[in-house]
Write a structure and sequence with these properties.
Elements (H helix, E strand, L loop, with lengths): L8 H15 L2 H7 L3 H55 L5 H6 L18 E7 L5 E6 L8 E8 L5 E6 L3 E4 L6 E10 L2 E2 L5 E5 L8 E3 L2
């Protein structure tokens, strides 16, 4: 049988009640050496303990009920906000200013631009009669992209030569001098970084001789 200091609080309450009742029984007071003051102290302590346990139990039950009620109210408020916030967000008659006053997030309905990537693997060759053939890798750019082909004399200023939605093309009537080429992806006014530049000898028949950083 466990001793009193091994008992939990709920078990100790019943144990203590029996302890006091037995100790203060008329036939046991003398044997246990208890004075009238001791008996009063035993009974008062037991009475206070019982009253406090009862008060605690009532408060605990009330707290649980209050917590349950609070959680239910929270869920009702949350569901109400969710219902009407979604309706108002979808209603064009509800202005962004009113949404802001309501404490709602004002959604940005403008489409998010898809990123543009610099074309890669640009290469080309001249055919000896002023025509250059170029090709490059789209590098993950999706449909709707236009590729701007720029050119310059080696060391000069870049200028737009032509534009294409394809990743390969032939360009004729070029000056028969070494020329740099690069490609930029464009969509709705947004531009990617330029590709690396290549130098092509338009009068030659070989592929580009080397690459330069744009």
């Amino acid at each position: 049988m466990p001793t009193y200091y091994e008992l939990g609080e709920s078990a100790l309450r019943a144990w203590f009640n029996n302890f006091v009742a037995t100790a203060t029984a008329s036939g046991n007071v003398g044997v246990l050496g208890l004075s009238p003051a001791d008996v009063t102290n035993f009974n008062t302590t037991n009475t206070n303990y019982s009253a406090d346990v009862a008060a605690y139990t009532a408060a605990h039950d009330a707290s649980e009920a209050a917590t349950t009620s609070k959680n239910a109210s929270y869920r009702a408020a949350f569901d109400l906000v969710k219902l009407w916030a979604n309706k108002w967000q979808a209603n064009p008659a509800v202005t962004p200013e009113l949404k802001q006053q309501l404490g709602l997030v004002v959604r940005d309905t403008s489409p998010t631009p898809r990123p543009l990537f610099a074309p890669t693997e640009l290469s080309g060759s001249g055919n000896g009669v002023g025509t250059v053939r170029l090709r490059w890798n789209s590098n993950g750019n999706l449909s709707g992209v236009t590729y701007l082909v720029q050119s310059r004399a080696v060391g000069g200023n870049w200028s737009l030569l032509t534009a294409s939605t394809k990743t390969r093309l032939a360009i004729g009537n070029l000056a028969m001098v070494p020329t740099e080429f690069r490609v930029i992806a464009e969509r709705r006014g947004l531009l990617s970084e330029p590709s690396y530049a290549v130098v092509i000898y338009a009068e030659g028949t070989g592929s580009s001789t080397f690459q330069l950083a744009a």
